[in-house]
Amino acid sequence: MGVEIRVEGLRKSFGRQVIWEDVSFTIPAGEISALLGPSGTGKSVFLKNLVGLLRPDRGHVYVGGGDVPRLREHELYEMRRQFGVLFQDGALFGSMNIYDNIAFPLREHTKKGESEIRRIVLEKMDMVGLTGSEAKLPGEISGGMKKRAGLARALVLDPQIILADEPDSGLDPVRTAYLNQLFVDLNAELGATFLIVTHDIGTARVLPDNLGLLFRRGLVMFGPREMVLSSTHPAVHQFFNARREGPIGMAEEKDVADVAAEPYSPPMPAPIQPQLMPSDGRMRPAMRRPGAWLREHGITPPPGSFIDEQGRDWLNDWDALVAQRQWHR
């Protein structure tokens, strides 16, 4: 089962450059969360702070009861075993075949024998659709396969938290769609906590349970996907609707005068698309929140969304679904 990550008052700078300050939010256990923001807002830096590869200037990162910035080196080593990290480029060793790349963490961090390692590696390769690719080198496979190999390696220690840094970078839309479906299926099967950094708005609209936006050296908003996508906050609305009008500029934020000079048009939330479902039809605890849940949390579904006038999802009869599975948020 996944682990909750609680961030409180986090600040990070490099010299005089403040990356972000006073960042506080909770990443729910067992759910898929996505973190977005304009280039240069410190999304990858944030991931490195979560696993202790970088230390913040101040603040707390609570993972499984421990405060990451205050852990000693040997405590950090043990804590990191809760994490599986998928790097942007896959970070595969070019001289090793796919099998040995995936087996590497098991050989480095466990005392398992080769027969047990083989069983685990082949199981994870099957989970990500790489069966039969054991002997291939990274240079002999596609970008999408490299991502999946990196994901398999991130899974071999059975992590409770999976971090993915722009996993869709360099992938075409079709491979991105396959990768997104894989994340949903893995979350349903493993119950791990997922945090995905991405620039892909299409991914943000259909994959995560929760969305966050970094901008102007801070966290603008973090919450349920439906809440963020229906927000009229200027930066949030501009970013998730890919508009030029708003506080986000070409290289950095616009000044107040530039924003004031722009023609004003009231924000019109785009329809919220149905969230991706696991391939095998199983339920994930966080997915497809019912209209009653949205209303309870003060979220008004925008016109044209998949929530009907009675607050029912038109793809699922939520009342019956909840009763059958005895599921609640």
Automatic annotation (TrEMBL):
Swiss-Prot/TrEMBL keywords: ATP-binding, Nucleotide-binding, Transport
Domain called ABC transporter: residue spans: 5-241
Pfam families cross-referenced by the UniProt entry: ABC_tran (PF00005)
Annotated InterPro entries: AAA+_ATPase (IPR003593), ABC_transporter-like_ATP-bd (IPR003439), ABC_transporter-like_CS (IPR017871), P-loop_NTPase (IPR027417)
SUPFAM superfamilies: P-loop containing nucleoside triphosphate hydrolases
MF GO annotations: ATP binding; ATP hydrolysis activity
Membrane-spanning parts: none
Listed name of the protein: Phospholipid/cholesterol/gamma-HCH transport system ATP-binding protein
